[in-house]
């Protein structure tokens, strides 16, 4: 339901915000809502168990990648810890032909779209450019430039319009686009430009902001004077705030926004109010800029524990189910460890690959020159 909640912005005074969509409390109690319940009326015990599995496995992907970075196997990792519900809920709201434009933290969305998490590691290991084929999963490559993907998503959505894949009434044709970004990205010009283009062109795009309240070390109140979802109103399209630690609420509101887009009703901004439990990336030390008590406050709102509490409360699964999920998580972790260490290092000449479809002669000449230079060392060694 829409609850009257007291929101506690990081590092600032509390403010009363009466517009937070929540269907599952931190204690695992189901909150009825006539409007949003209808959007998830197909979610029964098997689907709840599936969402719990997604949440646990997404977190295990993340924790294993952090461990691999600490062991020197990855150069960097951007953790999703605490944001699993926002990603899984919205990711499971998508249809196969919808298209996703992520930032660099959407490991849970990638999981929901069928991307092998081992493919994600290549980018952070520095052995590829995040080179999975976005056509196979409709999940675009990770975007490191802050906010740029919102423009990419809006442009793609304009193309969907021109292809006549919006508002036809055919569920197998009508397409929505979703762009993920954080609260820090809302301070970038690209995001605001994307809002303008999406609004005036009525594009089928959902802007999904995971407001984890910290743009690296910059707290939310240093970025905005009003709740982020209200910015949409100034650009002329709907915005709403959802409990980003509530997987059911995230699923419901994203389903509705995506369907609006597919029906030709234009963009929506979803602000998933959540919290970054870990560091911004593995190069960050959050203890330097935020209080431990703040972290403990949000531990009580853990997105996985509330679903587990709901399952236990409703007797929707037995202990065997939870044990099976943990065993699957262990298998996934082993897959990641093995796959990471087996990722092949690129050859020096690969820097010339994938620059042009048809490489120009000067580039080919540079490649040949570099190859000959490298071969000269091998030839010198052979002569010795």
Describe the model:
- The chain is an alpha/beta fold.
- The protein folds into 2 domains: 341 residues, Thiamin diphosphate (ThDP)-binding fold, Pyr/PP domains (Rossmann fold), CATH 3.40.50; 35 residues.
- The longest helix is centred in the N-terminal third of the chain and has 26 residues.
- The radius of gyration is 22 Å and the shape is globular.
- It starts with a strand and ends with a helix.
- 42% of the residues are buried.
- About 3% of the residues have low confidence.
Give the secondary structure arrangement, pairings included.
Blueprint: E1 2-7, E2 15-21, H1 34-37, H2 45-70, H3 84-91, E3 99-101, H4 107-112, H5 117-125, H6 134-137, H7 148-162, E4 177-182, H8 189-201, E5 205-211, E6 214-215, E7 218-219, H9 231-235, E8 239-243, H10 247-262, E9 268-273, H11 292-299, H12 303-313, H13 319-342, H14 361-383
Parallel strand pairs: 2-8, 3-4, 4-5, 5-9, 8-9
Antiparallel strand pairs: 1-2, 6-7
Helix pairs in contact: 2-3, 2-12, 2-13, 3-10, 5-13, 7-8
